[in-house]
Design brief:
This protein has 291 residues and is an alpha/beta fold. It has twelve helices and nine strands. The protein has helices spanning 16-24, 30-36, 41-53, 68-75, 95-103, 121-130, 147-156, 173-182, 199-208, 225-234, 251-259, 269-281; strands at residues 56-58, 83-85, 110-112, 136-138, 162-164, 188-190, 214-216, 240-242, 263-264. The protein has a nine-stranded parallel beta sheet, with helices on one face. α11 (251-259) links the parallel β8 (240-242) and β9 (263-264). The radius of gyration is 25 Å and the shape is elongated. The termini are far apart.
Length: 291
Amino acid sequence: MMSLTPSRGCLLDLPWEDILVPHILCHLPLQQLLSLQRVSKSFQSLIQLYLANMRCFDSSQIGPAIPRAAFVNLLKDNEVLQQLALQNCSDWLTDRELLPVIGQNHHLHQIQLKGCAQLSRHALVAISLSCPNLRRLSLAHCEWVDSLSLRSLADHCKALEAVDLTACRQLKDEAICYLAQKCSRLKSLSLAVNANVGDVAVEEIAKCCPELEHLDLTGCLRVKNDSIRVLAEYCPKLRSLKVKHCHNVAESSLSILRSRGVELDVEPPLQRALVLLQDVVGFAPFINLQI
């Protein structure tokens, strides 16, 4: 007689590559997946297969600080990464750990290296040579970025849409101009906290990047009204502009953008005066700002 008792299946009985890896494990936090490796040798093999096939690696999913040895082990077999975020590795990440990962992953389109100060210009050159489809790159507070490595990036990664060069203080107008000329698809660019950036760079960005939507010039002390007017003329899709601490940029140029609804990080002069008055006397008089 045939038994009607339902058989008990095991999670590991499901097809690994067709079901578990692409449809189940991808929904679990990376930290939990790594813990599963300690359950059994079979689970360890399954997680290793997942790590070799994952498309996105974000170090922040593991914890506030991922050990160097763990990072190397996690990505040693992966050749299909599309997104790589390593800001949580900034305390120890060097070219020695990063370059092998970049060299074997040619499908990367998003890389986050914010604050990774121990890398060198060779890291950016490796990225430019290995990642031709790169679209988003954050190098904020990476002061090792220089003009030669940025030129390499511009020459080989022309599909770039978003670049964060905040506090990359070696870069001057010439390097920024070259980037704008080669990467005309840029939609978002940050040049904040760089006193070397001036009107020449901003005007070239405006003329070469008509798709530009977001530009951060915070603390770019050499930027003046003339380049902001050019920006308003050549960038009809601009949605936000940051010019706080740009002391040579006045309302006479910003008003053009303000009237178009561009989001600015500085208030109109009258509004700033009212805020200051409120801070001093504790209240602001009623004034119709629509006049």
